[in-house]
Design brief:
The protein is of the alpha+beta class. It is about 30% helix and about 35% strand. A twelve-stranded antiparallel beta sheet has the order 5-4-3-2-1-12-11-10-9-8-7-6, with no helix packed on it. A hairpin with a 4-residue loop joins strand 4 and strand 5. Helix 2 packs antiparallel against helix 4.
């Protein structure tokens, strides 16, 4: 009796890889698939409408940050499975597709729904677009003022002027008009300092900063050239110093973040390193130093002065 030929080992490994991928995909969750954890609106019955609105803002901002982490984790599992399953099998078994981030996101979603229900029961009006008076009073820069930075690509390059005119402070974000030689137009950022909107050609960082920034915090986010799908990258960082800094005749509550990551330009990618200093009260950028072989991500930007409102 002639023995049946064995299937190629490569084919069996591929089948195992596909099976593992199917199993993992079945338990890994995207942020949109995470269900809210139960929460009781009665817990907020004694809260004022203003306090409920503030907590809704905080929960929503934190949920956005955690959702990005959950989605990044989901994508990393798929990538890991696609490369050398036999080599990475121990690491694959150690993965937790639905880890602490998914559990936190479920709690945040449940809390958000409970807060909304508590606001409905109390007949709370829609939250005002304007920030609370105490938040406005804490800001170091006010609408109408102009932030004037010196910017250069490399240390020996001649400096250029990069300006942000502060036009409006909303409940959860600040609006500016960017005026520089390379880009101009609307610029919006949240009160942590993440850039929500920027003109085409401007460097923007997203989902990187959070409130409050505390010494030792580990951060992760994205960096990209607005309007350019080929120039982007991922950033990680850590808060290495906090405290008062006097810049442009004002004292800011600064956090200094060491940055590192990888950025790409088309098919080429390279390492990025640098530091960033931001005001912890309103997210105002105080200093940015980036070094990378991709020229668009090599940058020095320093706040030099603040011009008063006309």
């Amino acid at each position: 009796m002639t023995p049946k030929p064995r299937p190629p080992r490569r084919a069996s490994r591929l089948g195992a890889a596909l099976l593992a991928l199917a199993l993992l995909a079945g338990c890994a969750s995207r942020s949109t698939e995470v269900r809210p954890a139960p929460a009781d609106p009665a817990d907020f019955a004694s809260w004022s409408c203003a306090r409920i609105h503030d907590e809704l803002d905080a929960v929503q901002q934190r949920a956005v940050d955690v959702a990005w982490t959950v989605d990044q984790r989901y994508g990393q599992h798929v990538v890991a499975l696609g490369v050398g399953l036999a080599v990475f099998w121990p690491a694959l078994l150690a993965m937790r597709p639905d880890g602490a981030e998914s559990a936190e996101l479920a709690q945040l979603k449940g809390r958000y729904e409970a807060l909304h229900e508590a606001a409905r029961r109390k007949l709370c009006p829609q939250p005002p677009d304007a920030p609370p008076p105490e938040r406005l009073a804490a800001m170091k820069v006010l609408p109408g003022e102009v932030l004037v930075y010196e910017e250069r690509r490399r240390a020996r390059d001649p400096g250029a002027t990069w300006m942000l005119k502060f036009t409006a402070l909303r409940r959860n974000e600040a609006e500016f008009v960017l005026q520089s030689g390379e880009a101009s137009g609307a610029w919006r950022q949240d009160l942590s300092g993440n850039v929500i909107e920027a003109p085409a050609g401007a460097l923007r960082w997203q989902r990187l900063l959070k409130r409050p920034l505390a010494l030792g915090d580990v951060l992760a986010g994205e960096i990209a050239v607005a309007g350019d799908a080929e120039r982007r990258g991922r950033l990680r960082g850590q808060v290495v110093a906090v405290g008062p800094q006097r810049i442009a005749d004002r004292v800011f509550d600064a956090a200094v973040v060491e940055l590192y990551g990888d950025v790409s330009e088309g098919e080429a990618s390279t390492r990025l390193e640098g530091t960033m200093a931001v005001d912890r009260t309103g997210g105002v950028l105080l200093r940015l130093d980036l070094d990378a072989a991709v020229p668009r991500f090599a940058l020095q930007r320093r706040l030099m002065r603040i011009e008063p409102a006309p």
